[in-house]
Amino acid sequence: MEWLEVAVTVEPEFQETVSQILLDQGIQGLEIVDPEAFKQVLHENRYLDYADDGLIEKYGDKVIIRAYFSSEHNAEVLKTRLHEEFHRYLNRIPECEFNMRDDSEWKDNWKKHYKTFKISKRVVIKPTWEDYSHADNEVIVELEPGMAFGTGSHETTRMCASFLDELVKGNERVLDLGCGTGILGIIAAKLGAGEVTCVDIDDAAYRACCENVLQNHVSDVVRVIHGELRDIEIRKFDIIVINIIADIILSLLPDLKKYSSAGTNILLSGIISDRRNEVVEAIEEHGYRLIQEKKDGEWVAMRICTGF
Question: 202 and 147 in one domain?
Fold first, then answer.
């Protein structure tokens, strides 16, 4: 099957913004090549075949974001639309390449780089195609990411998983908003949450989440909704997880109080360090309190609660 590939080269701080712009255009899949992540793996001396020789030298300090669109898309129309969005949100047009690809080139290649790893104190993420003998105190989440966000390797997801590991004691009602593959909702369920609602507006994410919920045998606990916050019936949750980008987090803050009470822990991640203060100001402006903060690399995650 043929796809239209759009490859955008940007500095790391623009990764989430560019990814969201591409998502808004109706992509079928997304791939991010981050040399900094490769450097960290090499430094820790794990999975040394994770990176191709010369990758770091080739890309330097920039991130390559590759989006895949169905072949029916008109490349010139899409190019014009993207340039408008880039200029609007970045005030410039980054380097872009448009190419037709056959999915046989890349469809399963990424699997050789995705290994079993521990994402938090109690939780281990295991690809469905790997074998793993776990310790008695470990919780295993089997994942088949497919073409959706959320393998667990990104700093923003790791911090959310760490928060959940600390907070889930049993029978909590959890909302995972912008769930991607469902990794965080499934982690909550595996840790003992009593009821989990996973929500994502993206088609690929919804399908991947449904499949992963079944794969992990938590369908009796986890409900998956194809939609957004306004599609969820108003009720109070014990834990709300939002691992998206700062702009969307800021837009959601006014409505989160409808779904939270004084005891609700709201976990915010996907916040680049440069925007940390902006998010904190908005939290205070909307009557929330910052309770705890985590930092991993250039990313920040926060645990907040309502002020009442």
Answer: yes
Residue 214 predicted with pLDDT over 60:
yes
Give the strand pairing for 139-143 and 123-127: parallel
Residues in the chain: 308
Q: Indicate if 89 and 205 belong to the same structural domain.
A: no
Torsion angle of C-alpha atoms 134, 137, 138, 139, degrees rounded to 10: 120
Let me know the angle formed at the C-alpha of 91 by 89 and 93, rounded to the nearest 5 degrees: 95
Domain that holds residue 255: 114-306
H/E stretch holding 308: none
Instruction: Tell me the two tokens of residue 155.
Output: 């700093």
Domain tally, the chain: 2
CA 298 and chain centroid, separation: 15
Give residue-wise pLDDT tens across range 199-213.
Answer: 999 888 899 899 999
In the sheet with 29-33, reading across from the earlier edge strand, the strands are 29-33, 63-70, 2-10, 95-102
Which of these ranges, 7-11, 59-63, 80-84, 201-205, has the smallest mean pLDDT? Answer: 59-63
DSSP 231: G
Residues 150 and 238 in one domain: yes
Tokens of 134: 């776990």
Structure tokens at 83: 């340039």
For residues 26 and 40, the answer to whether their CB atoms sit within 8 Å is: no
- The predicted model scores a pTM of 0.67
Mean predicted lDDT score pLDDT of the chain = 86
